[in-house]
Amino acid sequence: MDNLKIYAQYDIDRLVIHREGETRLGEKVAVLSSWEELPNTIGKFVLLGIPEDIGVRANAGIAGAASVWRPALMAFLNIQCNRFLNGEEILVLGHFEIDEPSDTSIKGLRDKVAEIDDLVYPIIEKIIAAGKIPIVIGGGHNNAYGMIKGTSLAYRGPIDVLNVDAHADLREMEGRHSGNGFSYALKENYLNHYLMYGLHQNYNNEAILSQIESNPKLKAIFFDDILLGADTDGFFDGLGPAAGLEIDLDCIQNVLSSAETPSGFEVNAVRKLILTHAKKFSYLHICEGATRMLDGRVSKLTSKLIAYLVSDFVKANIS
């Protein structure tokens, strides 16, 4: 049965590589004994995994996004505890355990994604209502819907979102999948202003382009225009106080994902964006990355990349 596995100290300890004379973040992070203690924990950030790729497959993509949570967590926990990042700012909550649907047709997968939505959003709502900032790793971009809905319910109103992505994920409401989380969030009034940064002209259909052009709540800067020197100053200034930050790793060149790209942002450009703007956001959602794809592609670097992005977000918020 689908559930949230809440970590005990043992779950953290087994992932930490100990070395004499050094302290790793995993030796400092907190775990949760009960939901009641969450508002009173020292840590401002709550780390959570969604290791699934059902939403990607429901969007006709290649499985693999389920693989990244555990290695990314291990990479993060083994960052050095030092003057730049202590680890006491972070609580590791756990991860969702999601069963494969018995019906693996497109309809069956999309029905399952709707069930995942109902699993995710109440947890995000609880975390934010407790005054914390969720950092969510893994899974398809379908989980943006649960992030947005949970945050919106906690704030009692629609929120703004910045999505750093090659794709707008504004496909038709044809059943839930990784390509239409923002469509559903807009329709159901959980999402207010939606800013898309780095869209690829080649991979957004005409219906989506027309929607962006006609809806004043939607604002986009294309990666192709950034290459031509487009002025991006002020693009992020209109975000409201409850904004969410979505980073789809398929916008970064040569990062393993279902929609891996040879042309996209360099890693340091995304790191700089986070370090510059992190304080604007009520959550961070990193999705679509993988360490192993169903088609045989593998990469050990995705987990370390995620560890960098998460640590950048935390550092920028506490500086």
Task: Give descriptors for this structure.
alpha/beta; 319 residues; Arginase, Chain A; 10 helices; nine-stranded mixed beta sheet
State the low-pLDDT regions, or none.
none
Return the CATH class: Alpha Beta
Strand proportion, as a percent range, falls in 15-25%
Q: What is the strand tally?
A: 9
Q: For the terminal residues, how far apart are their CA atoms? A: 41 Å
Overall structural domain count: 1
By CATH's scheme, which homologous superfamily applies? Answer: Ureohydrolase domain
Topology diagram in text:
Elements: E1 3-6, H1 9-13, E2 45-49, H2 54-57, H3 69-77, E3 90-97, H4 106-129, E4 133-137, H5 144-155, E5 159-164, H6 181-187, E6 191-199, H7 206-214, E7 218-222, H8 223-227, E8 243-248, H9 267-277, E9 281-287, H10 301-318
Parallel strand pairs: 2-3, 2-4, 4-9, 5-6, 5-8, 6-7, 8-9
Antiparallel strand pairs: 1-3
Helix pairs in contact: 3-10, 4-5, 5-6, 9-10
Description of the molecule:
About 50% of the residues are buried. The mean pLDDT is about 95. This protein is α/β, with parallel strands linked by helices and about 325 residues long. The chain is about 35% helix and about 15% strand. It has one domain: 3-Layer(aba) Sandwich (Arginase, Chain A), CATH 3.40.800.10. It has helices at about 10-15, 55, 70-75, 105-130, 145-155, 180-185, 205-215, 225, 265-275, 300-319; strands at about 5, 45-50, 90-95, 135, 160-165, 190-200, 220, 245-250, 280-285. It has a nine-stranded mixed β-sheet with strand order 1-3-2-4-9-8-5-6-7, with helices on both faces. Helix 7 (about 205-215) links the parallel strand 6 (about 190-200) and strand 7 (about 220). The chain is built from ten helices and nine strands. Helix 4 packs parallel to helix 5 (about 145-155) and helix 9 (about 265-275) packs parallel to helix 10.
